[in-house]
Design a protein that fits this description.
Layout lengths: L7 E8 L8 H6 L2 H19 L5 E7 L4 H8 L4 E4 L5 H14 L4 E5 L8 H10 L5 E5 L5 E6 L17 H7 L8 E3 L9 H16 L7 H7 L2
Parallel strand pairs: 1-2, 1-4, 2-3, 5-7
Antiparallel strand pairs: 4-6, 5-6
């Protein structure tokens, strides 16, 4: 029998993959329809991959009108929660505050831009939070692919240039109190642009050539020549 750890919360921030509103940088170099197909493949693959993690799994979605869509996506494997209003920092802070208020001791949050992120690193994030106040997974584009915190909300959700090459630097600059203990995961890549998409295609091909299953079948199907 599997033991569930209700005080561990895994959050997945997701936007409904509508053409014209999903992966706009990729869409500008391809088409809105193609970009929405990529966004949906990332979402479905990640939902499946992360469903094996032993935690209270929460998909926090936008827009609020998309609840029925996401209910079909998660198929009972995640709680559903609409994202709060406001810019990204405000929405993330609201998610963490809500979960910490209900007794969570370790909350880890990801987006859907890194479909191949190793699941073992997400487990590592929970382990790091046994000793650290905050854990970050740096992204190679200057942001982060994962953010986790323990029993306190860190002071990092204001004064940050979100979705930019300065995001990680600005986040670290907010940790002015040396009492905040920070842990880091290995860097990984997001997929936002057409160049990022080509990087992903190469990585998937390399994994297959090495005899490894990338674990992202829908994404892999789109990446085939």
């Amino acid at each position: 029998m599997t033991t569930v750890f209700p005080r561990r919360v895994l959050g997945l921030f997701a936007k409904e993959p509508r053409p014209g509103q999903a992966k706009t940088r990729l869409a500008s170099a391809s088409s809105p329809e193609w970009a929405s197909r990529v966004a949906e493949a990332f979402l479905l693959d990640l939902v499946d991959r992360l469903a094996s993690l032993n935690a209270c799994r929460v998909l926090t979605y936008a827009p609020r009108s998309a609840e029925a869509y996401f209910d079909r996506v998660v198929r009972g494997r995640y709680e559903l929660e609409p994202q709060a209003d406001g810019e990204l920092g405000q929405r993330m802070a609201a998610f963490f505050q809500g979960r910490l208020r209900t007794g969570a001791e370790a909350v880890v949050l990801l987006g859907t831009d890194s479909p191949t992120v190793p699941v073992a690193w997400i487990e590592q994030a929970f382990t790091e939070l046994e000793r650290a106040h905050l854990v970050l997974g740096p992204a190679t584009d200057g942001g982060f692919y994962l953010l986790g915190c323990g029993r306190q909300l860190p002071p990092i959700f204001e004064g940050v240039a979100w979705s930019s090459t300065r995001t990680l630097r600005d986040t670290i600059a907010r940790l002015t109190d040396p009492a905040w203990r920070l842990a880091l995961l290995p860097p990984w890549y997001d997929v936002d642009t057409l160049d990022d998409w080509h990087v992903l295609r190469g990585h998937l091909a390399a994994l297959r050539r090495a005899g490894l299953d990338p674990g992202v079948p829908r994404t892999e199907a789109l990446a085939e020549p």
